[in-house]
């Protein structure tokens, strides 16, 4: 994956060399082109919208199965590749401000809500995408009819957040912001070896090192969520595997424990790893069913009220 994409007489290209004019995309407030993906229900007008917010290093096309199942319930699903991810412009695994991810999500959600007025909009965020989705919902507390978080990154792993490592990352971020400070350990992605292999061989996944500036921005974003958890208002479902080593389940529990009383649920799956939607088949199916059931129940409740 290269850095910023070039342009030609036909316009800008994705990092893979495809003209953005030939693929779904949006241009964010910074002028960067973001690859978009839309899954539309067949034979009916959508009765709800749901935005998927992917995690670090990955891309939005990995959510085909859950999107297809939601389509069967009349839900239009949409997503984009974050800046520096997949087929979007931007430097890999680097961000000047975590708020850029949040603003891009809100811009895309506003666009879709404007195109489909009068129906509820939900958001589903995975891992770092869970951090983004939570902050987006905090910024717009009445925008989303429900928030689904799978393995949300809210509390950093102790070994990555020791005092000296955080200090080192902050120092590097100020002088060498793109210095590589770590990588995703693929052995913790899933218990399914086929899913791990698919992750390792996916050309749209970034397999290089995560940057110092990105690490600091992400740590600060998680800290913001913990500080403001008591004001998190939307209905939410938090899902996590108890053997997740990449994103601690204590983070989902913290949000659940500290959010105000109301429509909130948490489910910790015994034995599951980080990518709940790409776990062993029976478990992945269970997670998808839990998500679809939770969302459709709230669509029905909204329609009734």
UniProtKB/TrEMBL annotation:
Species, as recorded: Branchiostoma belcheri (Amphioxus)
Domain Serine aminopeptidase S33 residues, every copy: 45-280
Gene: LOC109470980
Name recorded for this polypeptide: Monoglyceride lipase-like
Signal peptide span: none
Gene3D superfamilies: alpha/beta hydrolase (3.40.50.1820)
Annotated Pfam families: Hydrolase_4
């Amino acid at each position: 994956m290269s850095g910023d994409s070039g342009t030609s007489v036909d316009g800008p290209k994705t990092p893979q060399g495809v003209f953005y004019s030939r693929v779904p995309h949006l241009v964010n407030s910074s002028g960067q082109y973001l690859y978009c993906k839309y899954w539309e229900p067949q034979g009916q007008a959508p009765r709800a919208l749901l935005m998927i917010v992917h995690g670090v290093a990955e891309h939005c096309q990995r959510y085909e199965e859950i999107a297809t199942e939601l389509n069967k319930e009349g839900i239009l699903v949409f997503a984009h590749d974050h800046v520096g991810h997949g087929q979007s412009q931007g430097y890999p695994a680097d961000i000047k401000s975590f708020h850029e991810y949040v603003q891009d999500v809100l811009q895309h959600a506003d666009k879709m809500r404007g195109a489909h007025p009068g129906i509820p909009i939900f958001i589903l965020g995975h891992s770092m995408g869970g951090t983004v989705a939570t902050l987006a919902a905090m910024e717009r507390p009445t925008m989303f009819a429900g928030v689904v978080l799978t393995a949300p990154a809210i509390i950093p792993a102790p070994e990555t957040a020791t005092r000296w490592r955080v200090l080192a990352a902050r120092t590097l971020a100020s002088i060498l912001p793109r210095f590589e400070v770590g990588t995703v350990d693929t052995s913790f992605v899933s218990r399914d070896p086929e899913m791990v292999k698919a992750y390792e061989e996916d050309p749209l996944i970034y397999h290089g090192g995560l940057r110092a500036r990105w690490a600091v921005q992400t740590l600060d974003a998680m800290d913001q969520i913990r500080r403001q958890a008591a004001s998190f208002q939307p209905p939410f479902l938090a899902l996590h595997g108890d053997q997740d080593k990449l994103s601690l389940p204590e983070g989902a529990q913290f949000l659940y424990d500290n959010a105000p009383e109301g429509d909130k649920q948490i489910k910790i799956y015994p034995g599951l790893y980080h990518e709940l939607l790409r776990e062993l088949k029976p478990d992945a199916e269970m997670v998808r069913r839990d998500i679809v059931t939770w969302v459709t129940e709230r669509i029905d409740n909204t329609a009734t009220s």
